[in-house]
Specification:
InterPro entries: CGGC_dom (IPR014925). Residues 38-147 form the CGGC domain. It holds the Pfam family CGGC. This is CGGC domain-containing protein. This protein is of the alpha/beta class. The chain has two domains: 1-33, no CATH class; 34-161, AF0625-like (Rossmann fold, 3-Layer(aba) Sandwich). Helix content is 21%, strand content 24%. The chain has helices spanning 54-62, 94-106, 126-137, and strands spanning 3-5, 8-14, 22-28, 37-43, 75-82, 110-113, 142-144. It has a four-stranded parallel sheet with strand order 5-4-6-7. A three-stranded antiparallel sheet has the order 1-2-3, with no helix packed on it. The radius of gyration is 17 Å and the shape is globular. The chain starts with a strand and ends in a 17-residue tail after the last strand.
């Protein structure tokens, strides 16, 4: 049930995933309530050797970088996952197939690709391109980036293959 706290409208919803998980949607008084957008962040497996995901998660929670476009909308992070490595063959990798099936079942409003999925020298690997194609074939927009980076001139824009 929505409630006003000063000039801020606070909506609290219990998510169906767990009785202990809450989604807090905060909006200014006078603005219409927007439906909560479901977001997935996909990162590179190799990057996890030195990356905590903190920059992606900070951008998500602060609505900065590629998440600026959702400034006045409720967001729900449905998954934060990485690929199964360069050279993974989808047809032979049951773990990667399971990840894709779960994401497709969630049917997020957008999948954001971490800056780590774009290598300066080589672009995106075939594994990430496979993910992009599958998401796009299933009507799920794929968005370039999460947090700001000089490697992402098109941050926040849809990726097309």
């Amino acid at each position: 049930m929505p409630a006003f706290c000063g000039d801020v409208l606070v909506c609290i919803r219990v998510l169906p995933l767990s009785a202990h998980v809450f989604c807090f949607v905060v909006q200014k008084k006078g603005k219409e309530e927007h439906p909560t957008k479901k977001i997935v962040i996909l990162t590179c497996l190799k990057a996890t050797n030195g990356c905590t995901g903190a920059a992606c998660l900070t951008a998500f929670h602060n609505r900065s970088g590629a998440f600026q476009q959702y400034l006045d909308e409720g967001l729900e992070l449905m998954a934060f996952c990485h690929c199964n490595g360069c050279g993974s063959v989808l047809e032979q990798d049951s773990g990667m197939q399971e990840k894709l099936e779960r994401i497709l079942k969630i049917h997020p409003d957008a999948v954001h690709l971490g800056v780590c999925t774009l290598k300066k020298e080589t672009g995106r690997c075939k594994t990430i391109e496979q993910f992009i194609k599958i998401f796009q074939d299933n009507g799920i927009p794929v968005i370039d980036g999460t947090h700001n980076s000089p490697r992402l001139p098109n941050i926040g824009l849809p990726i097309t293959l």
